[in-house]
Design brief:
Low-confidence stretches: 1-5
Largest sheet: 6 strands, parallel
Number of domains: 2
Structural class: alpha/beta
Number of helices: 13
Strand order of the largest sheet: 3-2-1-4-5-6
Radius of gyration: 21 Å
CATH superfamily of the largest domain: Glycogen Phosphorylase B
CATH class of the largest domain: Alpha Beta
CATH topology of the largest domain: Rossmann fold
Strand content: 15-25%
Order of helices and strands: EHEHEHEHEEHHEHEHEHEHEHEHH
């Protein structure tokens, strides 16, 4: 079978540097491997920010690769890998910087994406490919790396590395008299963000239903500014935790929420790992590929009409992963979002 082997590795290295959503998907794959191969020693080469979320993941040794260091980062990786020899490397990132990093990871077998998905020449850096898939979600694509080493795949599940300390923090910073919902409003790219007025009206809708609304996100100025704008537009009280949590504290905030509303951004996938339903807001990418894995029925998407206008073809006629470009998120209406919220609540 293409991409399949009976190999049970004694030592395994995973190369997935970024981003938050993708490393959340990768955790599900790692824990499938651990379930079937509990004796396999796993090392994960990961980005600096992503390590802040996953530090302490059971049974995994992390090697942090800091891309901001430039060539020095590669030299540090080389030094760390000196004298080591892995049975298998799962090269799970197509970016050229990841492929260069793979050169410093000694492994007998280097597994990469199938040639159709091995962009930026990734196929040149591997000696084995995963089985091709027609239209996979990113998480399902990652699961094929586990299949390539003989792992039988179950429904994805997660055991994330956070605990009582983070839950206590969330308890102390969120009013406990009401159930709450989370708005994680900002994506890493501004064009993926919905508008503050829309989020404010959604917050009012949730407040009218008796829920407290918590804003969460990172410390980037874009995220802080958007949260402040939501507060200005909202005719209801909000708990603004944007820039005030670390990633593990954010996991605890997401875990206790009734639901999360977010565009195509890391916290949507973090929420999935702690079994909180997500209303994902999509215009630029196909949510069937990149949406919150367990909440695809609740996604609000204008992606099909956007790609039809820009490419003149239906989604099914386009290459999987085709993106729409431009300022498109305003096409999502408040009613579309509140309808999806009401399905969950």
């Amino acid at each position: 079978m293409p991409g399949q082997t009976s190999l049970e590795p004694k030592s395994l290295c995973i190369l997935r540097l970024s981003a938050i959503g993708d490393v959340c998907h990768a955790v599900a794959m790692v824990q499938q491997i651990q379930k079937q191969y509990p004796q396999t020693k796993i090392t994960w080469v990961i980005g600096k920010v992503e390590h802040m979320l996953l530090k302490g993941l059971p049974g995994v040794e992390f090697v942090v690769f800091d891309k901001s260091l430039g060539w020095q980062g590669y030299m540090q990786l080389r030094q760390h890998m000196k004298g080591r020899d892995f049975d298998v490397l799962l090269h799970m990132q197509v970016a050229l910087r990841a492929s260069i990093a793979s050169l410093f990871i000694p492994a007998k077998v280097k597994v990469g994406f199938d040639k159709q998905r091995a962009k930026e020449g990734q196929w040149l850096f591997t000696n084995k490919k995963i089985a091709p898939q027609a239209e996979p979600h990113v998480l399902d694509g990652f699961m094929n790396f586990a299949k390539a080493i003989g792992v039988n795949i179950d429904a994805p599940s997660w055991l994330m590395p956070f605990g009582q300390q983070e839950r206590d923090w969330a308890h102390d910073n969120i009013e406990q008299s009401k159930l709450y919902c989370v708005i994680s409003a900002a994506a890493s790219k501004a064009e993926r963000n919905w508008h503050a007025k829309g989020y404010a009206e959604v917050a009012e809708h949730l407040t009218a239903k008796g829920y407290q609304v918590v804003l969460c996100g990172g410390p980037a100025q874009l995220e802080v500014n958007l949260a402040n704008d939501i507060e200005k537009h909202a005719n209801c009280a909000l708990t603004n935790l944007v820039g005030k949590t670390n990633l593990k504290q954010m996991l605890a905030v997401l875990e206790s929420a009734k639901l999360v509303i977010a565009p195509d951004t890391g916290p949507a996938h973090m929420a999935t790992t702690v079994s909180t339903p997500v209303v994902g807001l999509y215009a630029h990418s196909n949510p069937q590929r990149t949406g919150p894995y367990k909440s695809l029925d609740f996604v609000v998407s204008v992606y099909p009409q956007c790609v039809l206008e820009q490419h003149g073809k239906e989604v099914a006629q386009l290459p999987w992963g085709t993106r729409a470009k431009g300022e498109l998120m305003d096409r999502i209406s408040v009613a579309m979002v509140t309808n999806s919220i009401d399905k969950i609540l």
